[in-house]
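Milestone 3.1: sequence recovery, worked example.
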């Protein structure tokens, strides 16, 4: 076990030291050696650089590089835990951000070189970059889960994220207003596929993964239902309104997917769909993303009188408390157009 720590004398910084434990005469003793610098970043670089004299040959042979375990975690461990490919992609983005930071600023390559100090510095940098608290929270949770798995394999002795305070962003429920909804439906009619996607997202609350994996073979025309993938890899049957059903029926059946995938990769298609939606909304001077459609569906459905338990089942939430956050988003009365779109009894 080894670590870096500053040493003070009468309140003044003497410098940074490298500490380690060795067993002598049956007892563990703590040894230290000066890193000959008062600069914290330089001290960590000197201590944990691969060529550092403080890292023995035996330690180098047993240590695992961050890149190696990242690949194992993303492409072997996560799939074995039934994580979806989209979840894997999000985890990969978070870990790549963190890896880029520690390798560029501290020249760190090995898992066991990463300490709490590096996590704190990364969190500060993300705040300085004006990244939202919810995104930072998600990234830190991903890094924490990553190191927990590294602990399971004994690649590290302690999780550096263990005592880090992970910010909890306030749950934001952003929805489209009635004018924005009418504008999106009207303008999207110029593109059959875009119109069908917009209506499907607005009137079902299905997540992006379920949207891109919807298949023609699972469309039941008699019952007006579509079976699609749900969070966690399960399947769920969603009911389609006449408006959405007719929009989908107008689409050409180019392949097995209802919303044709121009890429071989689901992740690339998810990214393209998200980008297309953002650009479409931006063209209408509307702030929007894929998940905002789900919030909109939930909020307007409750405002139109849908029972909370029914909405919970439709959204696939584990508890009613998770669904209840949509109860007070819309307080004003809705016009007839919105009731026609979201009133579940008119479907």
């Amino acid at each position: 076990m080894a670590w870096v720590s500053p040493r003070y004398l009468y309140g003044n910084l003497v410098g940074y030291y490298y500490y380690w434990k060795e067993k002598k005469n049956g007892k563990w003793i703590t040894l230290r050696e000066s890193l000959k610098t008062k600069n914290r970043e330089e001290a960590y670089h000197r201590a944990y650089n691969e060529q550092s004299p403080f890292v023995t040959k035996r330690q180098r042979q047993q240590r695992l590089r961050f890149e190696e375990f990242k690949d194992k975690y993303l492409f072997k461990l996560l799939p074995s835990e039934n994580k979806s490919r989209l979840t894997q992609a999000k985890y990969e983005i978070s870990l790549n951000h963190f890896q880029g930071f520690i390798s560029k600023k501290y020249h760190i390559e090995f898992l066991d070189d990463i300490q709490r100090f590096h996590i704190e510095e990364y969190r500060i940098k993300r705040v300085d970059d004006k990244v939202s608290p919810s995104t930072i929270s998600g990234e830190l949770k991903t890094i924490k889960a990553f190191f927990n798995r590294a602990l399971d394999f004994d690649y590290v002795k302690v999780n550096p994220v263990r005592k880090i305070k992970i910010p909890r962003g306030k749950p934001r429920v952003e929805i489209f207003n009635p004018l924005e909804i009418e504008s999106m439906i009207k303008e999207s009619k110029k593109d059959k596929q875009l119109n069908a996607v917009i209506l499907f997202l607005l009137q079902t609350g299905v997540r992006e993964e379920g949207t891109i994996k919807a298949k023609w073979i699972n469309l039941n025309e008699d019952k007006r239902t579509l079976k699609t993938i749900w969070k966690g890899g399960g399947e769920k049957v969603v009911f389609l309104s006449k408006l959405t059903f007719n929009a989908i029926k107008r689409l050409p059946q180019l392949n097995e997917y209802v919303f044709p995938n121009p890429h071989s990769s689901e992740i690339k298609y998810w990214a393209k769909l998200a980008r297309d939606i953002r650009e479409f909304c931006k063209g209408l001077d509307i702030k929007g993303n894929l998940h905002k459609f789900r919030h909109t569906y939930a909020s307007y459905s409750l405002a139109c009188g849908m029972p909370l338990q029914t909405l919970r089942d439709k959204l696939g939430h584990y508890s009613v408390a998770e669904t209840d956050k949509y109860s007070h988003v819309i307080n004003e009365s809705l016009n007839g157009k919105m009731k026609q779109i979201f009133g579940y009894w008119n479907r």
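The longest strand covers residues 12-24. The CA atoms of residues 148 and 304 lie 44 Å apart.
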